[in-house]
Amino acid sequence: MGRFLFLLIIVAAGLGVLLYLGTWQVQRLAWKEGVLAEIEARIAADPVAVPDQIDRERDRYLPVTVTGAMLQGEIHVLVSVKRVGPGYRILAPFDDGTRVIMIDRGFVPLDDKNTPRAIGPMTITGNLHWPNEVDEYTPEPDVEGEIWFAREVDMASVVLGTDPILLIAKSKTDPNVTPLPVDTSGIPNDHLQYAITWFGLALVWAAMSVFFLWRTRARTES
Length: 222
Prior knowledge:
transmembrane helix, cell membrane, membrane, 7 strands, transmembrane, Surf1/Shy1, elongated
């Protein structure tokens, strides 16, 4: 009887841990959905002027409108767009009359890397962003070949001679460049899958435990 009681405690403890982890992931899911909703609302807000003093955390995703002139010079960031294929994000300098910032103009196919694009006066609407796309596996940019593998704002601003401010265009800046506006699709939210995994393991644990305890009890009584 003592052995059976000990096994019952182990089963209950294991089930409790798995159910706790599943419940925690459900709570994390609700938190992440709130964060994403807040970001989406910020992205979709009415655009304002670029602040005089930039704070990267405060101004991340801030919708802005700038008027000025697109300048010569580009950085090409290698990307792949779903249902389209590989190509480049085009980063270029833009003079708004008080400073020079970077514009993420959007996407072009691989063959259009060196196609001339519109420069000169224009008004652009988009969102400020400082993407975190670099990890230990990201190759170093081919600066001479103008091919990059991530939008490294600080390094790119030095190459292009701009302030370290990136505006990701929502409006078109060239007929042949497709804007890739800021959205939340790149922000991971795997908490539902994690919750299903933990609750599934709890179900399997419970079923196996019931069978094991039944077999143990039957052997004890025989």
